From TrEMBL:
<keyword id="KW-0812">Transmembrane</keyword>
<keyword id="KW-0121">Carboxypeptidase</keyword>
<dbReference type="GO" id="GO:0004185">
    <property type="term" value="F:serine-type carboxypeptidase activity"/>
</dbReference>
<protein>
    <recommendedName>
        <fullName>Carboxypeptidase</fullName>
        <ecNumber>3.4.16.-</ecNumber>
    </recommendedName>
</protein>
<keyword id="KW-1133">Transmembrane helix</keyword>
<dbReference type="GO" id="GO:0006508">
    <property type="term" value="P:proteolysis"/>
</dbReference>
<keyword id="KW-0325">Glycoprotein</keyword>
<dbReference type="GO" id="GO:0000324">
    <property type="term" value="C:fungal-type vacuole"/>
</dbReference>
<dbReference type="InterPro" id="IPR018202">
    <property type="entry name" value="Ser_caboxypep_ser_AS"/>
</dbReference>
<comment type="similarity">
    <text>Belongs to the peptidase S10 family.</text>
</comment>
<keyword id="KW-0472">Membrane</keyword>
<feature type="signal peptide">
    <location>
        <begin position="1"/>
        <end position="23"/>
    </location>
</feature>
<dbReference type="Pfam" id="PF00450">
    <property type="entry name" value="Peptidase_S10"/>
</dbReference>
<keyword id="KW-0732">Signal</keyword>
<keyword id="KW-0645">Protease</keyword>
<dbReference type="InterPro" id="IPR033124">
    <property type="entry name" value="Ser_caboxypep_his_AS"/>
</dbReference>
<dbReference type="InterPro" id="IPR029058">
    <property type="entry name" value="AB_hydrolase_fold"/>
</dbReference>
Length: 725
């Protein structure tokens, strides 16, 4: 039975961009866990986890503990949501490099909707990254600028059926060229070579009565938030050592004290983070008013909500697609003047009215956001289609939507980590029950079916979080078209404008005899842009910061900021979670602080990036050329370690020239604890470098593919949105 086939309109878009990375190499080996426990808060929920063997993901400090595994939630746990399926959510946790027992906890969510957080772990900000060895296989090395430098890190694959998460482990076949899934496994199309049609195990694509293959996962952000709250309840209870609210040295040390954690999300995480955080706060209030039993639940109190190149509010951001495409800070005219003018008109007369119609219907019929009102879903899905006409104009010039400096096809991101995670030894090491899939197209299709991206209310959610004392930080790479910084800056200003009443004169903690500080509506736009200094040699970006709200523009970075500019991204992250001045890392009083500098972030450059071509089998339609596709279909070329070579003679010559030191499960390399490179700490600026050097570089020794500062990731256009990693 064919489980998933994209509708023709969507398939036409996906043919250009979709990374069919759900490719499966073989069924994972039998799984064993060192711990299988009942949740301390809900005996129906189980936690199965293990410590991966050393070398599986190389950390900077050999003593850093890691845990991988699943939290299994039975059907009907999310009631009143119609959750008649099991949820098995995969996690990968790594301790902070320094003093993990007193370090903060940061949760990371990649976007999509439907993209694995393993992308963030291995391709952006995790403790390790994948490198190719001299024999062509893959191992891991330490990521110098991993965010574990300053925080315990928890990576979660959500919603259900994303990445290593699943409902029921199911054997199936996957067509890498079309993205079609078949269950049970079927013989390949005779027109495809064997390496383009692979068998393995992954979450089912169970259909509902209407034949929609997203019946066993969330199809709105509101539902995903509820599943993640249940996950966190059990995870935090199982690992109290990393729960800031229950540590002995915490000022509030009662058994179920507040959990001071940070939530960072990327891309479609611009939807996830505000909704998840708001739901956590709702549950906190329910505990206080007695609606939830306090002795059976934990308070999940967030310190920081961070959003990286996020799609937050289409009504605000979509109008900036034509402006950024036509007149960006790189001098690249991805849209011509006619397309620019037409797109602006399309936003005004088609996109914006459709969004407003969706939101009006939602307010009347689906205020909870469960996506179970067909008429409202239809209006919101139509709005996505209308607005997508604006977003997709970048296709006309062949520009890469995640980095306007590139043109398609793009070899980035390297799919090496996908090959690594599908290795039998690695699957066994982490206790995976399914093969790794980077992005799940039927999860995405489920969110599309409800028009989830169009539904609003997130600006209000973020405003309420700031009123509650949560720090909200926006971080945008300035080369990204898809979630460009023009729109991100507009969101930050719209959020400030919501806070005309905060802080109020009565609630402000002003010094007696002095005036209360300005409200965010006045103080944030009045704050100037300060230069972000990540080290003594260059300027990494510009930041407007006022109290608990900040907007950072990161220079020469695309959609995935930590991947393009790892040193700058880390320092910005660490300064945010520590409550420091983001520009310099200096101590400040957030109740009164406002950054100083120009009113606008005006830096411009003409930098371009042309990465070395690499055709990744698991990212065929994004990274391979027309010549590659023609050769593959004709039976020409060769594949080695997940890379297609049109000329088979290129296979061995493309390997690294010398032996590369890297770890594999059970065989770690030296962690470099005694090396001269400092692997912990946050930089505090004492001076401002020259403006001329505005970008850092990420390099991984031994890679024959690009891991430079300008690498990025790509997956496909959906109906009304790009798949946002």
């Amino acid at each position: 039975m064919e489980l998933f086939r994209l509708p023709p309109a969507l398939l036409a878009m996906v043919a250009t961009f979709l990374s069919p990375s759900n490719a499966l190499s073989h069924t994972p080996p039998p799984v064993s866990y060192s711990n299988v426990l009942e949740s301390k808060l809900n005996r129906d929920i189980t936690i199965s986890y293990k410590e991966p063997p050393p070398g599986t993901c190389m950390t900077a400090i050999s003593s850093q503990k890691q845990y991988t595994g699943y939290i299994s939630i039975p059907p009907f746990t999310l009631a009143p949501i119609q959750q008649n399926y099991s949820i098995n959510t995969f996690f990968w946790f790594v301790e902070a490099r320094d003093n993990p027992s007193v370090s903060p906890l940061t949760i990371w969510l990649s976007g999509g909707p439907g993209t694995s957080s393993m992308f963030g772990l291995f391709n952006e900000l995790g403790p390790c990254e994948v490198v190719q060895l001299a024999d062509g296989t893959y191992g891991t090395q330490t990521n110098l600028w991993g965010w574990d430098r300053s925080s315990n890190m928890l990576f979660i694959d959500q919603p259900n059926n994303v990445g290593f998460s699943y409902d029921v482990a199911t054997n199936a076949s996957f067509d890498l060229l079309t993205g079609e899934v078949f269950e049970p496994p079927t013989p390949p199309d005779t027109g495809l070579p064997h390496f383009m049609y692979l068998n393995g195990t992954f979450g089912s694509a169970s259909t509902d009565d209407d034949g929609k293959p997203w019946a066993t996962t969330a199809n709105t952000t509101e539902i995903a938030a509820r599943a993640t709250w249940h996950f966190l309840q059990s995870w935090l209870a199982t690992f109290p050592k990393y729960n800031p609210g229950v540590r002995p040295n915490n000022t509030n040390s009662q058994v179920n004290g507040p959990v001071g954690v940070n939530l960072f999300a990327e891309s479609y995480g611009g939807k996830y983070a505000p909704v998840f955080a708001s739901y956590f706060e709702e549950q906190n209030q329910a505990r206080l008013n007695g609606s939830l039993p306090r002795n059976e639940t934990l308070e999940v109190r967030l310190e920081v909500v961070g959003i990286i190149n996020g799609l937050i509010d289409d009504l605000i951001q979509d109008q900036y697609f034509p402006d950024f495409g036509y007149n960006n800070t790189y001098g690249i005219e991805a849209l011509n003047e006619v397309d620019w003018l037409n797109a602006r008109a399309a936003y005004t007369y088609s996109c914006a009215p459709a969004i407003q119609a969706c939101r009006s219907a939602m307010a009347r019929s689906d205020p909870e956001g469960y996506g179970d009102v067909t008429s409202t879903n239809t209006l919101c899905e139509r709005a996505q289609a209308a607005c997508n006409e604006i977003v997709s104009l970048i296709n006309n010039g062949g520009y890469y939507p995640y980095d306007i400096r590139q043109q398609l096809p793009s070899p980035d991101p390297p799919a090496a980590y996908q090959e690594y995670l599908n290795n039998e030894t690695v699957l066994a090491a982490i206790g995976a029950k399914v093969n790794f899939t980077e992005s799940n197209p039927y999860v995405q299709a489920g969110f599309i079916s409800t028009g989830d991206t169009i539904r609003g209310g997130l600006i209000q959610d973020l405003a309420n979080l700031i009123r509650g004392g949560v720090r909200v930080a926006f971080i945008y790479g300035d080369a990204d078209y898809l979630c460009n910084w023009f729109g991100g800056e507009a969101v930050s200003l719209a959020l400030a404008a919501e806070l005309t009443d905060y802080p109020s004169a009565a609630s402000a903690s002003a010094v007696p005899g002095t005036d209360a500080p300005p409200t965010y509506a006045d103080g944030f736009p009045a704050a100037g842009y300060s230069q972000i200094v990540p080290n003594k040699t260059y300027i990494g970006g510009a930041v407007r910061q006022y109290g608990n709200l900040s907007f950072s523009r990161i220079y020469q970075a695309g959609h995935f900021v930590p991947y393009y500019q790892p040193e700058t991204a880390f320092n910005v992250f660490a300064r945010i979670i520590n409550g420091l001045e983001i520009a310099t890392g200096n101590l400040i009083d957030l109740s009164t602080f406002g950054s100083t500098g120009p009113a606008n972030a005006t830096f411009t450059t003409t930098a371009r990036y042309s990465p070395t071509p690499t055709c990744w089998v698991r990212a065929w339609n994004a990274s391979c050329s027309d010549d590659d596709t023609e050769g593959m279909l004709a039976g020409e070329g060769a594949v080695a370690n997940g890379i297609y070579y049109l000329d088979p003679d290129d296979v061995t010559s493309a390997y690294p020239e010398s032996t590369i030191a890297a770890g594999v499960p059970g065989h770690p390399m030296s962690t470099g604890e005694a090396a001269s490179t400092k692997v912990t700490g946050v930089y505090t600026a004492t001076a401002t470098p020259s403006q001329a050097s505005a970008a850092s570089h990420r390099s991984t020794p031994g890679t024959q593919f690009t891991f430079a500062s300008f690498a990025a990731a790509s997956v496909g256009f959906g109906l009304g949105l790009l798949l946002l990693l």
